[in-house]
Amino acid sequence: MDQNNQHPLKNMTHDALHDLVHFDTKIFKTLPVLIFKPGKLTASTFDGEKNNYVKPVALFVFLNFLFFVIKFKGIFAYTLAGYQSQFNDRINSAAADMHLSLPLLTERFNTAMHFEQKEYLVIMVPLFAVLVQLLYFMQRRHFVQHLVFSLHFYSFFIVFLMILPYIMILVSLLMSVLHLQIAFFETETFLIDTILVVSFTYLLFAVRRFYQSNWLVSIIKSAVLSFGVFLLIVYVFRLFLFIAVMHSITEI
């Protein structure tokens, strides 16, 4: 592996800070490539040539900020009620310690969850990068390469989450016009299924381009990675959010 591929983490951080300070019209060139050419941004980061794209960390930070300030209901319908069967004792203990009724604790928790589920999306990036490294350990790539791949995937993921509510509105309107049942399209199950399909499709082309796998290997590994996205969202991210949100409201 050449020196350009062994891209040091400190250099990547320096480039990201430079992009944040000199953020300009490069974003308008970067976003179409991110969305419509999966894997190309990651490949261009390590091809040894100067490019005019926003650096991976700067892009992810910018989209996270944009995602945070956009006003809509949130990513998933995570409320305190959804945690009660699993963490009932912890919830009752918190309510007693804070001298709050359960309804008031629920209100505080759900309000905090609305904001923090977007803020803590960043935790999935390094975890996903570890999963990618495990799948491609035979290629003996530097971890930073997998991390950049993960940053670009979750940058796309954030863009997808920002436009998803509008897609769901259009689907609901279409279903109403056709006088079809729309209840399923408003459930978390539909949201998760949509994320799985979109993630698999995007990852298929991304791993094909960046890791240069053949189609069969790309399909298998994209399926594993998209299932990993599902596990991170439904289990790891959900558990982390409960701990983080409970800590934030009990520290008030």
What does this structure look like?
The protein has helices at residues 9-21, 26-36, 40-45, 56-69, 84-97, 102-119, 124-135, 143-177, 188-210, 215-250. The chain has 252 residues and is mainly α. The protein has one domain (71-250). The model is unreliable at 1-6 (pLDDT under 50).
Number of strands: 0
Unreliable residue stretches: 1-6
List the total number of helices: 10
Main sheet makeup? none
Summarize the topology.
Elements: H1 9-21, H2 26-36, H3 40-45, H4 56-69, H5 84-97, H6 102-119, H7 124-135, H8 143-177, H9 188-210, H10 215-250
Helix pairs in contact: 1-4, 4-8, 6-10, 7-8, 7-10, 9-10
Short description:
This protein is mainly alpha-helical.
Structural key phrases:
disordered N terminus, globular, 252 residues, mainly alpha, 72% helix, 10 helices
